[in-house]
Amino acid sequence: MKRNKFLAVITTIAAAPFVGFSQLAKNISDRAKGFRIPAGEGRYHGHLQLKGVNANIQDVKISGKDTEGGLAIFEQTSLSQGRGTPLHYHVGQDEVFYVIDGSYRFKVGDEEFDLNTGDSIFLPRQVPHAWTQRSAKGKMLVTVQPAGKLEDFFVIMAGLDHEPTPAEMKGIFDKCEMVVVGPPLKL
């Protein structure tokens, strides 16, 4: 009996590199294919309606799962005039926002910027930043590189069955590798 268990363990260990290689080959093959995400849709999760920070809708256009963590792209439909994010920073991700429609105010470090349709802004990792929606409605494309855990943040916030307390918000930010360092940006 012990011999059979021993042989089973040895066979499993010997096969592991081939199983791993087969998964790697599948991932490489999947990455070699393009894909299309139709307008008004997200690749994963459906429309993620946030709670807490604001009531905006996030659509995952390109997931970190699609890029082996290299980057993620989100389309945000902004429905929360006068609301935005607390002052925070990302431990290991840079962000780029491109305003498709509407107007926003951003704070990056000590500087403030008003962005309108067609404008972009770069937010470097580990630099505190926040933004607030100025217009009644808006839409932005957000690119995060590397992907990090921002997608997880959106999934968690959309899955809440209540408005989170400030302590809950801080815990969710921390879990998703973001550090809150101040209040939301006021207009």
Order of SSEs: HEEEEEEEEEEHHE
- Provide the spatial order of strands within the biggest beta sheet: 1-2-3-10-5-8
> Any idea of the CATH class of the largest domain?
Mainly Beta
The low-confidence runs, each spanning 5 or more residues with pLDDT under 50, are 21-29
What name does the CATH topology of the largest domain carry? Jelly Rolls
- For the termini, the CA-CA separation is 74 Å
Mean of the pLDDT scores?
85
Tertiary shape: globular
What is the makeup of the main sheet?
A: 6 strands, antiparallel
Q: How many alpha or pi helices?
A: 3
Beta strand %: 35-45%
How many beta-strand elements?
A: 11
| Overall radius of gyration | 21 Å
Helix content: 25-40%
- Class computed from helices, strands and strand pairing: alpha+beta
- Could you name the CATH homologous superfamily of the largest domain? Jelly Rolls
Q: What is the CATH architecture annotation of the largest domain?
A: Sandwich
Q: What's the layout of helices and strands?
A:
Blueprint: H1 2-31, E1 44-49, E2 57-62, E3 72-78, E4 86-90, E5 94-101, E6 103-108, E7 111-116, E8 120-123, E9 129-133, E10 138-145, H2 150-159, H3 166-175, E11 178-184
Can you walk through the features of this model?
The chain is α+β, with helices and mostly antiparallel strands and 187 residues long. It folds into 2 domains: 1-33; 44-184, Jelly Rolls (Sandwich), CATH 2.60.120. The chain is 27% helix and 36% strand. It has helices spanning 2-31, 150-159, 166-175; strands spanning 44-49, 57-62, 72-78, 86-90, 94-101, 103-108, 111-116, 120-123, 129-133, 138-145, 178-184. The protein has a 6-stranded antiparallel beta sheet, with helices on one face. A 3-stranded antiparallel beta sheet has the order 7-6-9, with no helix packed on it. Strand 6 and strand 7 form a beta hairpin. It is globular.
